[in-house]
Model the fold of this input.
Amino acid sequence: MFDSVINLVNSCFHRQYYVHSDDTVAQQIVVHKNSPRGTLFRRAGPAQKVYFDSNDVRACIVTCGGLCPGLNTVIRELVCGLYHMYGVHRVLGIEGGYRGFYSRNTIPLTPKIVNDIHKRGGTILKTSYGGHDTSKIVDSIQDRGINQVYILGGFGTQNEATLIFEEIRRRGLKVAVVGIPKTIDNDIPVIDKSIGFDTAVEEAQRAINSAHVEAESAENGIGVVKLMGRCSGFIAMYATLASRDVDCCLIPESPFYLEGPGGVLEFIERRLREQGHMVIVIAEGAGQELILPSDKSNMNRPDAASDDLFHDVGLWLSLKIKDHFARNKKMTINLKYIDPTYMIRAIPSNASDNVFCTLLAQSAVHGAMAGYTGFTVGPVNGRNCYIPFHLINEGQKRVVITDQMWARLLSSTHQPSFVNPQHNTEEAKITLLI
Amino acid sequence: MFDSVINLVNSCFHRQYYVHSDDTVAQQIVVHKNSPRGTLFRRAGPAQKVYFDSNDVRACIVTCGGLCPGLNTVIRELVCGLYHMYGVHRVLGIEGGYRGFYSRNTIPLTPKIVNDIHKRGGTILKTSYGGHDTSKIVDSIQDRGINQVYILGGFGTQNEATLIFEEIRRRGLKVAVVGIPKTIDNDIPVIDKSIGFDTAVEEAQRAINSAHVEAESAENGIGVVKLMGRCSGFIAMYATLASRDVDCCLIPESPFYLEGPGGVLEFIERRLREQGHMVIVIAEGAGQELILPSDKSNMNRPDAASDDLFHDVGLWLSLKIKDHFARNKKMTINLKYIDPTYMIRAIPSNASDNVFCTLLAQSAVHGAMAGYTGFTVGPVNGRNCYIPFHLINEGQKRVVITDQMWARLLSSTHQPSFVNPQHNTEEAKITLLI
Amino acid sequence: MFDSVINLVNSCFHRQYYVHSDDTVAQQIVVHKNSPRGTLFRRAGPAQKVYFDSNDVRACIVTCGGLCPGLNTVIRELVCGLYHMYGVHRVLGIEGGYRGFYSRNTIPLTPKIVNDIHKRGGTILKTSYGGHDTSKIVDSIQDRGINQVYILGGFGTQNEATLIFEEIRRRGLKVAVVGIPKTIDNDIPVIDKSIGFDTAVEEAQRAINSAHVEAESAENGIGVVKLMGRCSGFIAMYATLASRDVDCCLIPESPFYLEGPGGVLEFIERRLREQGHMVIVIAEGAGQELILPSDKSNMNRPDAASDDLFHDVGLWLSLKIKDHFARNKKMTINLKYIDPTYMIRAIPSNASDNVFCTLLAQSAVHGAMAGYTGFTVGPVNGRNCYIPFHLINEGQKRVVITDQMWARLLSSTHQPSFVNPQHNTEEAKITLLI
Amino acid sequence: MFDSVINLVNSCFHRQYYVHSDDTVAQQIVVHKNSPRGTLFRRAGPAQKVYFDSNDVRACIVTCGGLCPGLNTVIRELVCGLYHMYGVHRVLGIEGGYRGFYSRNTIPLTPKIVNDIHKRGGTILKTSYGGHDTSKIVDSIQDRGINQVYILGGFGTQNEATLIFEEIRRRGLKVAVVGIPKTIDNDIPVIDKSIGFDTAVEEAQRAINSAHVEAESAENGIGVVKLMGRCSGFIAMYATLASRDVDCCLIPESPFYLEGPGGVLEFIERRLREQGHMVIVIAEGAGQELILPSDKSNMNRPDAASDDLFHDVGLWLSLKIKDHFARNKKMTINLKYIDPTYMIRAIPSNASDNVFCTLLAQSAVHGAMAGYTGFTVGPVNGRNCYIPFHLINEGQKRVVITDQMWARLLSSTHQPSFVNPQHNTEEAKITLLI
Done:
């Protein structure tokens, strides 16, 4: 069809690297005899049949929501992938998130401009929360003649991308809308992991190490580290598993209570008696239901921004622990609270995330160039796939608790499960059957 | 059966985390309609039925071959996993590789002793090449009453583990023999990746960055970095993809030639003319067939040790490039050669590898405690499985070239494929059919 | 005198390395014609005449106050210096600060025990604030037969060391009391710098970098970083000079005001208009006089501990900035506040501090072995000296403002001096005279 | 005189920060009663009387010789210092070392262009060895109307700067020639230290750590690390002192011999017997006199470049050690040789060096603007001074051996001094007199 493009693509890809149009990836990989394979996803990769003529392509890239490591790498690889793999030379950067579509000028992006940006944290396109206005955005897309839209963002952003996709369809425009999952929380449904996750877990080690040193250097030292994760405790769980210095990991998926027998405070007391110090990692979304309105007045943190719905649970827990030991007078404790959030999310992506971002960006480009639209690109069982928006939006956020990993974590920290006695009994009953 | 064990296990694992005995992982994940699933591997995890009574278990751990990041983490987690998950208190360290079985005393390993070792590179058990003597080793196992043998090593080591496994069967001993794949080259068949690989790719960035800075700061500067990889170029390829500063990546799986049109030297000349500097990454096993005996006299490196069969291809390539430009007098070059091998393999594992090593060690322990033997533990499509030794030994070493990744790399470095003209033509022909 | 010691010392030090007993270091190094040299300090180093017989020495080490990088290195080098340079084999660790003298058992310290501790942050001896009880401490020293006391601590700790020194003199005991200056604030009088300072400045770069990335990635992004420094802004100033990304540095020695013309808020507004983002570094002791009681209720931080007198000025400033822009409605800002305190002070010392700590510890040992007492060891104009306690205690805390460096910083950040208009006029007048 | 400049300067510097024109720094700081102060050096800093009108200034910057950390920081701060402190807007970069003056176009340098370069290693101006042609260079300076020349380079470069300075004087040009000492070896006379040194010592720790891990993980493991230092062993010595893992440090200033009693090989054997492994650090200039022509054929290293006069002593030592143990058959050793040279010198400068580079560059600018010429700027006893070229050129290169530090190192590694027996006896005799 478009010979020039095809030749260019061919110079990059040997024939065997084309993805067959019926290549799919099975969601269900752990199988029993004759068990179903679950949903099959279209595998990402260069297609033999290219939909767009590269001379006609006008792509744009936008980053929305909070920072996470790897945004610049994805931007770089989208630009370079379009340029070098398909000869697309017109790529625009939308500045400052969704509202940049209608309130700002665009920035031309070339391989030269983006050449070194992957070595810096943040996003050269700036980002913001909110600002989504479907019709203004689609107006801008239409007015500027954009026919490929790459949207980097988390769960909310992907939802809003759907609105853009639907409005574009309604207007009958030939515009590919592609989502690239960006959330450090790693809670996007269907896909294995999102960008920046590995880097975040790595960098979290610094905070945990510091908490551990502070705790060890004091009498009854307690180090509390708050890590990202509102609905899911992936970072907290992986950082705990990687560190081996954590005594207690609290996540949103696994409810806990503070007071009384079997509660967190009792466990802290016991652990301090046993080893003289301890480290607690808490995900930001953990225990939100326990924070009373009266607690909140003490926690007027200045950087709430878009984070108003979430109270600083690390601060809350720290106060609760201090109060408890001040009241009980049983032991004097030394608690240090560390919130490394901004120091984690602002660093450049590490090597592993750089490779991941590269493949994701290239997959996104292949998908759009092949004429697919309304999909998010992401790894399913280790292979990048095109996932229709609705499967992301309708899916449940990924959580830790369904995962074998949580059991591994419990066996690693030797923390109790902080669940109610009834539940415990039920478990006990089950195990007696064996 | 063994109630004490079962109770201990139950306190660690909720019922739902037991692996069903018919849980398998399909090797074939990219599927077409009704396509076969390939080999199915038994999924690793805690079994409901435990074979060993923990009071009777006497486990031993041995590390063989060269260093790679993560050995100490695996040792730590084997010891802690046996102790905390199953109550096994008698774990012995075999010192200095296979020959330690018969020529050295064992070292008792406890959670306290191994508590912090994951923060250090190398192996606290020391390691060595060779020294395998099946009957002496099995004598030692028998004499010491050992009934679980954990062997960390690469392809060769896993082969030798099979000999131990078979001799043990021949003697009718009830001893679990478990292999844990350790090769920084990442070339072990069947499994997704081996321990230390992520860390190695990360650390390789330092060498590549330095080569890039040296190259950029000189006129016609060339930075050459040699990375590990004898049969496969995984580290070289991933490090190149992660860096984006590499202009040419040479690996064992993709033959190349130096002189003449389409050769590496011509490409170097062109790239220098275009951008004034360049970075070359070469895997240690690349181009071995091109090294003539006469070249070798120039490369008497002191640290050959067990590496006698491999000539320092980075040194060889550097000399060839220097000779070429000295001879042609077309341009004066400034070449800097960096061999970061020991600086990469001796560092502690990063967070991602720490999690990987933990899960691998726990899987190994679950497998042995369940009574499985003669298997290597490793991830298949992202899930840890028990892989019978023979599938590892008979499998072909993993290579890069079958992977889509190599195409991605070529499109990222824009290097030619350095293959012969015929091959090129053939490709061209095919693409015309589209 | 003590031949065995002398021989041991001789085997370590060539004759020329002895410090002459009348070697002194001049405090005044910038000199005019015939200007006085200021105080002369006795140079530290091995003396030809050793006071103690090493067989009789019973040394002890104690760490007091907050953490700073390098404590473990000093402990290690005191132990190794005493052992290897003088053959002293009996060194005790006092655990948990001053109160450890009378409320805890001592820990024997040997070269083997301390061999690797310099690679870890914190202090293996644990530390605490307060707990000083002169007579109980000297009782303990006397009862245990200790005759060398090495005290690591900051300004307060050195003051208390004087009390111990005087009580010991009053009792007529032959005990050397040696202070080793430990304060990350770097505010100890007379000496050039204290341990851990270089490491702290290095590590502070991470926080500043993150603040910079966050600020750059948002519209009107402001990154606020609080760094250590109660009476002096050394860390803030050096970290700012090292980074070059900081737009405004606020320190205790240089008063400022927020509102009105020439104030900090006006400057922030201007800088945001000019470049769209900015980074502010504030030392913890800056602007304390501006914090009103009504502000304090908002800042109930959990980790106040011994820090009760200081309010979190970073939090306060962040709230003030947010309030200002919320009120004025001129621009929407995005402020991120980072407090890296514990992540900085808990890391291991870097190479430069390791060398510094080694020389300091060796100097301390030489001084005590030569029979000196009642002194703090520290660098004066780059040479380690013995400084009598009273010169430290009576000296004024070191401050930044007398230093040329502050002028350099102002010329580097281009921030105004935030002083009152009168002062500005006066300056202008003077310069007209030139 | 030039009011505009003065006002600008005044806005930067409070009155008290001007350097008095008779401020000097005494070279001799360790003093005895009435001892002479040695040479007095003019203290660097802003002068009250500015020589150049900033509108007339045309400055240029050139980097010569090998890389070291901090070059880009100095370039940045020269440009920003001239611009912000004095309003000088015309600064040219000379590309590729001395030969760039006559064979290349110049590059305009502005604060915007250099804003982020301090975060990258190397030099954005590129560098080269040689190429010095006094009259061509001065022709170029004259033709381009340059009146301030900033030359970054080591001992040789500073010598050549003198030739330029003298030719300029001969021609009667009003051109300030300023040297900025750049040598990672730290061997420039008079000054305390040169840029990049701290960073180099820090980065060398990685190589030493790796050598230590490799040595510890093998039977009779020996790790050999070669570090920079041709005439002086500063990096080797400081890296050894910082690490505490080094058993033997060999430097140019302290001769040694391999074979026989008291030789290095005997020491290695002893240390291996004692502790089973060891780490050796060798400076590149150590033992050059021991390398026989016959050894050299084995050491044809590809990256000799300008380094032809120096043979790879690390490689040579490694071969000698391997030969020795292969011959003696007393023990099997495992030797790993690490040459981290390029990985050290190509990294960005750390915080401490960034501050140092900033002050040095600002001092250089103040000196030139005040009308001084023919000087090198550098720290003497911790204060930056203007040092006339001839005192640098006629001075002896700085060496380690006159320093107390070497004694400290010997007492830290417990290595013998490897000197001949006569010398030892002489020492013994002297110490008996005490």
